[in-house]
């Protein structure tokens, strides 16, 4: 059996991005309201079983919040899924699934634990390249706002736009860079 850390990493950084890439709107539909079933299936697929799977299942995690943002002729759906408590570097406290209705562009963002105890906002583009958007705000509301800004920017030019023009408030992501 894999350790919880390797299983989490597989779910958060491999299986969910692949599922979003493969099924796009279907994944979004399946996690709206109650993402627990989908995530528990992914944890099981990644090798978690028995008491560890029960522990994840019984945790107060996988709460879902979503917003729809409108701009010009497009709207985006952003679904935030709160994950189990992040204990190891790269564990996610939240995952954001984003979808544009008009362009059908989607993207996954993660709020990942850093070695210094802070969280950084990262993304995974259509080519599975990892993007690091810097230190994340502490509040989920501000983090959701950053995800929204970054997603709008990434949608430009069908997701090929680089993150150069986004200015964030003092408390929001700093040192925007692609990695």
3D architecture notes:
This protein is an alpha+beta fold and 179 residues long. Helices cover 35% and strands 27% of the residues. The protein has five helices and seven strands, in the order ααααββββββαβ. It has helices at residues 4-23, 25-31, 36-45, 50-58, 140-155, and strands at 63-71, 74-82, 92-100, 106-113, 119-124, 130-135, 177-178. It has a seven-stranded antiparallel sheet, with helices on both faces. It starts with a helix and ends with a strand. The relative contact order is 0.13.
Give the low-confidence spans: 163-179
How much of the polypeptide forms β-strand, as a percent range? 25-35%
What gyration radius follows from the Cα positions, in whole Å?
16 Å
Number of DSSP E strands? 7
* Major sheet strand order: 1-2-3-4-5-6-7
Structural class: alpha+beta
Mean pLDDT: 83
Give the oligomeric state: single chain
The biggest beta sheet reads: 7 strands, antiparallel
Determine the number of helices (DSSP H or I, runs of at least 4 residues).
Answer: 5
Shape: globular
Order of secondary-structure elements: HHHHEEEEEEHE
For the termini, the CA-CA separation is 31 Å
Helical content class:
25-40%
Produce a short descriptive summary.
With 179 residues, the chain is of the alpha+beta class. Helix content is 35%, strand content 27%. The chain is built from 5 helices and 7 strands; from the N terminus they run ααααββββββαβ.
């Amino acid at each position: 059996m894999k350790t919880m850390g390797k299983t989490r990493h597989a779910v958060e950084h491999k299986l969910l991005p692949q599922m979003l890439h493969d099924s796009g709107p279907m994944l979004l539909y399946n996690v709206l309201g109650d993402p627990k079933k989908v995530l528990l299936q992914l944890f099981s697929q990644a090798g978690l079983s028995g008491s560890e799977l029960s522990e994840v299942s019984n945790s107060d995690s996988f709460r879902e919040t979503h917003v729809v943002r409108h701009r010009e002729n497009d709207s985006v759906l952003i679904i935030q899924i709160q994950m189990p408590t992040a204990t190891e570097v790269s564990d996610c406290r939240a995952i954001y699934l984003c979808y544009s209705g008009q362009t059908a562009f989607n993207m996954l963002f993660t709020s990942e634990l850093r070695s210094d105890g802070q969280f950084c906002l990262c993304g995974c583009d259509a080519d599975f390249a990892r993007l690091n958007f810097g230190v994340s705000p502490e509040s989920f509301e501000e983090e959701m706002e950053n995800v929204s800004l970054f997603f709008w920017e990434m949608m430009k030019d069908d997701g090929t736009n680089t993150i150069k023009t986004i200015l964030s408030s003092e408390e929001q992501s700093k040192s925007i860079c692609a990695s």
